[in-house]
Batch of 3 targets.
Target 1
Amino acid sequence: MTKFYSKTFNELTTAELYAILKLRVDVFVVEQNCPYEELDGLDCEPQTQHIIGYDDNDVVAYARCLAPKINYENSAAIGRVLVKKDARGKGLAHAIVSLAKDICISHWPEQGVEISAQCYLTEFYTELGFQVDGQEYLEDGIPHIHMKAVL
């Protein structure tokens, strides 16, 4: 059974931070063959919420919630959404995005929630209450689309 936790950067242990960063590099840099600057300085912003999914002591899912004015002027942002390769197909992506959306709404209730989604996941995010807001664009060589939560 996966358990989810939300923590600020200062609440993360060094072991948790290492596990999160390793998993993000494993998925976004190695698996997707996309060399980019993974450590962007936004993890340690005071209001950033790190959503971590654990199976026993193993980090199997992750998402990051950013406060308004960090990525988007008037909205919170969800990013770095991932599920560990051997934990996929169990509904964890749905669970962590839903939780991240709820956390954004509870922390910043007067703001919207936005996401820069990989295009192949547009239908997935639509099912979770997001709608396309703009045209397709390349981010780190991968097609993305801007989406906003319908609140």
Target 2
Amino acid sequence: MTVQPGRRERKKAATRQKIADTAMELFLERGYDAVGIRDVAAEADVAVTTLFSHFASKEALVFEQDQDFEQRLTRAVTDRAPHEPLIPALRREILALVRHCTADSAAPIYRMVDESPALREYEESMRLRHAESLATAIAADPDLPQSTTACRTIARFAIDAYALARETADPDAAVDEIFQMIEAAWEAALPAGRARGTVPVSTRP
């Protein structure tokens, strides 16, 4: 049974969202470089210390769904149905993230990111962190007996698929094309006797 968050947690989440929404409005209206942390705090009617208790940096305000995206990626591994292959589960989640980030409403945000060296650098470090978390989740699955290198490689491929597909004219088709290559790489790395169609009964619940 899902435990509902308490009043304190709901209030904290609401404050965080208010800060993030205020920051994005200011960034898009005035330009990212023209807005400071104090401007965001004042507009959101919170103390600067409160802002930093929710966001570690100015760049983090732009990527406020960072932790949610990372959790979604790892849950694509840990929460997939018994016997469901890894790659289709990852493809489904990456496609959902790509569609979210290529919606018309997201276009101004990613134009802002593309125009800011600081935001591009932050996004790259975020992708590397997501890839490491995803690799850890893959390596921890007893039904996926791959080497650490293979797990990290496939995780990096999946994260790069998100970035590459987002930049194309047809993101859905790009995800399909990229994941065909990712699946081929995953199958090639499987130990002997673990090729497609020969995977033993899952030990996952």
Target 3
Amino acid sequence: MRTARLRTVHPVLWAGWAALATGAVLCVIGWYGISGERYAERQLPYLASCTVPGAALIIAGAVLLTHGRNALAAARVEELYGLLVAAGPADGEESGQPAAEPVATSGELLMVPGGTLWHRADCPLVAGKAEAVPVDSHVLGGGDLGPCPICEPPATGPGRPGR
């Protein structure tokens, strides 16, 4: 799938670069011709034959490069989507189990001083951290802390702060 789509994209990119280069060369030739003439009547042929077409080629090259890069990005997105679809559903979704279960199940709640969340004791975000302290019920009741989205600790309950 990748090579077929990219084969159609690369010629557009090469054509864009070629148009940009040709336009730049024409603009330089036109500028050089115009700079050597003193009178406007003698400058017009260089303007008409080199500078205007050169500017048009530069614009066309920019458009082709933009289109080619967008097509390249679209091809990559299609390839990633194909890989995602080919991978199939996760194991938890096939067996009918809920997809998101809490990572931690401990009953003790901890917080890190200066933090904004409370966690279960076995939450991977606070596990092994010496600075993690038990949550005080006054701090929890004050609403300064929120529940951790990783371990999903309960806000209230038996033996928990904030009952």
